[in-house]
Amino acid sequence: MLVTLSEILRDANERHYAVGAFNCLSVENVMGAIEAAEQLSSPIIIQLAEVQFPEAPMELMAPLFLQAARRSSVPVCVHLDHGQSVETCRRAIQLGFTSVMFDGAALPFEDNVAVTREVTDMAKAAGVDVEAELGKVGDSGADTADVFTDVEESVRFVQATGIDALAIAIGNLHGHYVHTPQLNIRRLIEIHEANRLPLVLHGGSGTSVDDFKACIHHGICKINVATAIQRGIMQRITERLSQHPDEGYIPLKQVMISASREVVAEHIHLFESIDRCP
Ligand SMILES: [Zn+2]
Question: Region 45-55: what's the mean pLDDT?
Fold first, then answer.
C-alpha cells in the first residue's frame, strides 16, 4: 500500500529500527526491492534522486513506483531524494510522490530554512511529507574540527521548517567508501534527544555493521542505500556473463531482479525492519 514518510517512519521511530530507502532506476530494480520487502514483511521506501533523472526521468518512473506501491502487500513510501529546487519538489508532488526531500545542505542556514519552509508549505497542502538536510554550515572562526550537524541549529531548523524527517551529518558520506567511516554516535544521540522527529542517514553503502546498529538504536529511522544496490546488480550480471557469455536478455533481466531482491533483503535484515508489517 502507498503511504507517506511520516506514516512509515512512526513505528520505526518508536521501536528503534530503520526503514531502508532504496534508489531504484529500473523496473527490475523496483520489482526486486518490493519482492524482498513482501517476503520479509518489511516496510520499504523506494526513491529517485534528481541527479538520476537523466537515466531515469521522474515522469516515467513515477507511474512505475506508484503502481508498485499501490499493489504491494506492505507499506511503501514513494520519495524524491535530493530535490535541488522548489520546482522539482512541486513536480514530484504533482506526480503523486508521497514524500519529497529538499536538499539545501549547501546553502547558508537562513536560506536553507527559507526554501525548506516553502517546500513544506507546498507539500503539506497536498498531504505530502518532507525530508530536509542540515549539514555543517558556515561558522567561520568557530571550532573548525567540528564538521557534524550542530545540535542547537538542528532544533532551530526543525522548528522553523515544520519538516517530517531530518538528514544529518555525523561523519557519513555518499557513495562507496575507500575507508569505512567512523560515525559520531554521540552527536547522533544529542540531536535525537533534542528533536523528536525521525532522523535520516545518507550514504548507507559503506557503513560498518556496528555503526548501522548504533545508528538505528539511537534515532536513525531512514537509511538511504543507492551505491550498494547498483554494485550488487552489476556484480551478479558480470558473474553470469563470465559463466554464460551468450546469456540472453530475458535471463539477464531475471538476474537483475533477483540481485535487487537479495541486496535489499540483506539491508532489511541489517536495519531490523523485518516482520514489522502485521
Ligand atoms: Zn543522500
Answer: 98
For 124-146, how does the pLDDT look when each residue is reduced to its tens digit (9 = 90+)?
999 999 999 998 643 444 444 56
**In the chain, domain spans:** 2-271
User: What one-character DSSP code corresponds to residue 183?
Assistant: P
CA angle 68, 71, 76 (to 5 degrees): 60
Which of 29-33, 134-138, 174-178 is least confident? 174-178
Q: Match domain 2-271 to its CATH number in 3.20.20.70, 3.10.310.10, 3.30.450.40, 3.40.1280.10.
A: 3.20.20.70
What distance in Å separates the CA atoms of residue 43 and residue 60, rounded to the nearest whole number? 24
Q: Is the whole model's pTM more than 0.90, yes or no?
A: yes
Q: What is the pLDDT of residue 146?
A: 65
Which residues have beta carbons under 5 A from ligand 1 (an ion)?
Answer: 202
How many helices and strands in the chain, by DSSP H and E? 10, 9
C-alpha cell, 159? 522548528
Looking at 81, 129, 150, 211, which residue is catalytic? Answer: 81
The vertex-10 CA angle with 224 and 150, nearest 5°, equals 60
- 3-state DSSP assignment of residue 74: coil
Which of residues 216 and 142 earns the better pLDDT score? Answer: 216
User: In residues, how long is the chain?
Assistant: 278
Compute, in angstroms, the gap from residue 261 CA to the centroid of ligand 1.
Answer: 21
CA of 37 to the centre of ligand 1 (A): 21
Say whether pLDDT at 176 is over 70: no
d(CA 241, CA 244): 5
Active site residue 81: yes
Residue with cell 512509515: 8
